[in-house]
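Write out the 3D structure for:
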Amino acid sequence: MHIGDSLIPFRLKGTDGRIHDVADFKDWPAIAILFICNHCPHVRAYVTRMRELFEKYSDRVGFFLINPNDAKQYPEDSFQNMVPMAEHLGIHGNYLHDEMQEVAAVYGAQRTPEAFLFDSEKKLIYHGAIDDNTENPDNVSIRYLEAAIDAALDHEEVLVKETQARGCTVKWKK
């Protein structure tokens, strides 16, 4: 995906057992899609930061966390193991399983964590890292995703539109 591309619809099973459709948030001012997994140490380093984002913005931003990893290679990323991770994150049912890896492929996701933010017109306005320090939350100086969300909610231009996502690679099926 490139900045300015339209949101690609998807329907995936969430950790609450329901099918979640991104179209359910079509009238929201922003949609954040984060490709994550359970086993990646980079994702684990972001748990508290992601939870804080959800708590701060969940009434105005539709959040979808998508696990695209092949659970046969990485059993820790199985759907069953996603349920406690969703509870730990405070995201409840919106932790989605991309078992066929179709959503990750169409979005061009390469890493976990990797963020895609869409504005009220469902155009991609930010893609990349959550912030500038994957390992240490105390050393973060730029909160890329949060700044992009604030800009989207204020109908302003996102200053940093793309960054390099850092983390584990998506574990594609063989």
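The chain has five helices and nine strands.
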